[in-house]
Amino acid sequence: MNLSRAITAASITAAAAMSLCAPTAAHADLVTAVITADNHYALYTTGPGGVISYINRNEVGPGGSPGTYNWSLPETWNFSATQYIYIAAWSDNATAQGLLADITIGGTPFNSGNPAWRVFATNIDLNDNSPAPTAADLTTQVNLATSNNLWETPFVGGTNGIAPWGTVPGISSSTQWTWRNTPGDPNPLTPGSGVGEYLIFQIPVPAPGAAAMLGLGGLLASRRRR
User: Fold this and answer.
1) Cβ distance 217 to 20 under 8 Å?
2) Domain count along the chain
3) Angstrom distance (rounded) from CA 142 to CA 2
C-alpha cells in the first residue's frame, strides 16, 4: 500500500464532502431538473443574497397534463442556483406517495436517492388542488428547520419502474423514489399517507470543484487498490 497516496485520496474526499455541505452564495450553477411526484411538488431555489425564489410546479389537480395522472410524466426545468435547491412535495393521502427527480447541477447528477439530500416535515397538510407554498412560506419553514436542526436523512426506496408507478418516462432507470422516513414504517412510499406533509427536500449547490475533487479522490483510491 502507498500510504501517501491513501492519505491524499482520503483528504480529497473529505474536502469535497465539506464543500458539498458548505455552498457558496457567490457561485451560481446551471441546473436541469426533471421531476415528478405522487402527487404534487413545487420547485424553489436560492438566488443572490440567499433569497428563496419559486420556480414552478406540476399539475394542480389529480390528472396529468399530459399523462393520465399528475405523476405519470415529469416536467423539465432549467434555472440557476447559488446555495440550495428545494422541492416541496405532498400527496393526496391515498395509495402511495413519493418524489422522483433527476437533478443535474453544473453537469453533475444529484438525483433523488443521492445522500446529499435532506428532508423536513412541515406538518402543514396540502392536497389535490392546493396552491403551492409561496416563497415566503417556504422561507419560514426552511428557517424553522435550520434553526432547530430538524433536517433529516430521507427514506430511499426502489428505482424508477417499481410498483405502483411503473416506469416514468424521461427519468433515469437508476433514480430512486424518496420520501420522509416515518418511525415504525419500513416503507413510507405505500400505502397512502399524509404523515408530516407537506415535505421540503433540500440539496446544497456544491462549491466550485467539489464534484471534481470527489472524482479525483475516487480515482486515487482505485489506483491504490491495484
Assistant:
1) no
2) 2
3) 45
Write the Ramachandran bin of 49: left for phi over 0, alpha for psi from -120 to 50, otherwise beta.
left
DSSP 169: T
Instruction: Quote the CA–CA distance of 150 and 95 in Å, as a whole number.
Output: 27
- 131: its cell numbers: 396552491
Q: CA-CA distance, 194 to 185, in Å (whole number)?
A: 13
Instruction: List the strands of the sheet with 40-46, edge to edge.
Output: 52-57, 40-46, 84-90, 199-204, 118-121
Residue-wise pLDDT tens digits, 116-171: 999 999 999 999 999 999 999 999 999 999 999 999 999 999 999 999 999 999 99
Verify that 221 and 167 share a domain, yes or no.
no
Q: For cell 400527496, what's the residue?
A: 91
Same-domain check for residues 190 and 93: yes
Cα–Cα distance measured from residue 90 to residue 125, given in angstroms and rounded to the nearest whole number: 8
